[in-house]
Amino acid sequence: MVYRSLLPMLCLLALLLDGCAAYRTMNRRDECDKAIKNYSKLIRWQEAEKAALAFVDTPERPAFDKAAEALRRRRITIADFRILAHECKPEQLKAEAVVEFDYFMLPDNRLKTVTDRQAWIFREENPATPDIADGWRLTTPFPDFR
Fold first, then answer.
1. Is 28:90 a contact under the CB 8 Å cutoff?
2. For labelling alongside 58, which of 10, 67, 76, 107 has CA 20 to 30 A away?
């Protein structure tokens, strides 16, 4: 008698756990889309420091900040961006994106375009590495605006 009521409960538990895993994957996919878009917006609006704080791990941040500072010294203004393609693979904890940035460098007013091929990984919270935040993190360097 006990076994009859236990089987439906186990099936329900399995469905619930499977639903939680699917929800987590879907949530990570949404977070990935938002991360790529928000990172690109921050770069477009010359907020590279904020982009680094939000999306670049602490060990890679000095190189990123140095490249962003060079952008300011050279008086480069980013006019627009387009996300050409992106693929989020939350089950593999990876994502890729191709983003174009339109920019100009004063006193020259010619509009130029740089293609930024981005690789992203999803970091989960880990007490062993407290200086690395969880979430989607950019692993590729700052784009080279020439």
1. yes
2. 76
